[in-house]
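Attaching the record inline, Q. Sequence:
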Amino acid sequence: MHTKRQKEEEAVTLRDVYRETPSARAQLVGKMYEDGCDVAEFREALELILGQSQDYLSAIEVAGGFPGLVLWCLYADFPTAHLPEDFTIYRGGRCSAEDLLNGLSWTTRFDCAAWFAMRKTGIQRAPTVISTTIFREDVIAVLDGRGEHEVIPQNIYDVQLATLREVEIGAMRWQNRE
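Structure, as predicted:
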């Protein structure tokens, strides 16, 4: 049986997460969740793996799938009060709209999604941007560490597809933003 001091010495800290390689960070964040660590510290660690290092797949695996990741995000208690009651989110890439729907991260900026759709020119697929309107309560994470106005929604509703011309113009605006 561990003493309280031994448990404190074994507890994972945010500093430990920053020291690790991106692939090992999800394991440490999982341990932080299991240990019931400080919410603000957990949120920062989760934002590091989801927003900055973009290690979504490891996070989903360690959390036990998307439902587990939802629990992590709810525990992290990402602030959402600054978001409108309902708003449009976008996701872009060089794949089908169906494949984009399987992604985790969305942006509140059309031009950012268009830039993601246009950035990999060697891929034979056409650039695609999809959009949907969601409610504030659907957002389980807000990640803006890279300035991409990123959100992770729990629920997706009716999806719209942007035209290629809209995507091209939006990508140019994002590329030339100040």
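The chain has nine helices and six strands. Residues 86-175 form a domain with the ADP-ribosylation fold fold (CATH 3.20.170).

More tomorrow.
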